[in-house]
Amino acid sequence: MTEQKAPEGQSVEPVVPTETQEQKSTIAYETHRKLLDEKKRVQSQLDQLLKEKQELQEADARKRGDFEALLKSREEELAKERSQRQELSDRITNGMKMSSVLEALGGQVDSKWYKLIDVSEIAINPESNEIDHMTVARVAESLKKQWPEMIRSSAKLPSNAPQGLQGGTGKIAESEWKKMKSIDQRKYGPNDVIWGY
């Protein structure tokens, strides 16, 4: 190695190898777990502090007789809960619609095609909360016409096609082995014969 000399008045900084892009994007599992645990702990503390703050505000409003502030706080809480419940209900309904369309399509549908399935056209009976199978059939038929490559049919062998032995290749059934001459039987070891078959 040759030593680099700097011009007078300047210093040479040592060359430090930089991290590669792959090294920057990965972290140790232990570090990841520690960070997640820390995040959960801080989030629980924040939730606790926000809850205590709300309770203090409600207690203060009760002392002052400010029931309008209490009512407003409760209405905000209720609106938040209703929106979460509605979001969950919508997700469940869309999931039910999607599964009924996939079932109506019959074959295997790869998940990359799910984005093309529009479940908004599927009607739901408001009284029984059941899916209308006529609209499901209509959506499935339009998908079959529009995207025939979406549906993979499972390839099955005809019923009279050879199915092979249970043990795989190189094996012989005991019934076939018994039909052979003793000279030919010696070619097969005890592990090559599927006994009881």
- Rg, nearest Å: 35 Å
How much of the sequence lies in strands comes to under 5%
Shape: elongated
Q: Point out poorly predicted stretches.
A: none
Report how far apart the termini are: 75 Å
Computed structural class: mainly alpha
Discrete helix count? 6
Biggest beta sheet summary: 2 strands, antiparallel
Beta strand count:
4
Widest beta sheet: strand line-up: 1-2
- DSSP helix fraction: 40-55%
For this structure, the quaternary state is single chain
The H-and-E topology, N to C, reads as HHHEHEEHHE
Please explain how this structure is put together.
With 197 residues, the chain is mainly alpha-helical. Among the domains are: 89-153, no CATH class; 168-197, no CATH class. Helix content is 53%, strand content 4%. It contains 6 helices and 4 strands. The strands form 2 sheets. It has a two-stranded antiparallel sheet with strand order 1-2. A two-stranded parallel ribbon has the order 3-4. Helix 2 (29-64) crosses helix 3 and helix 3 (67-105) packs across helix 4. The longest helix has 39 residues, at 67-105. The termini are far apart.
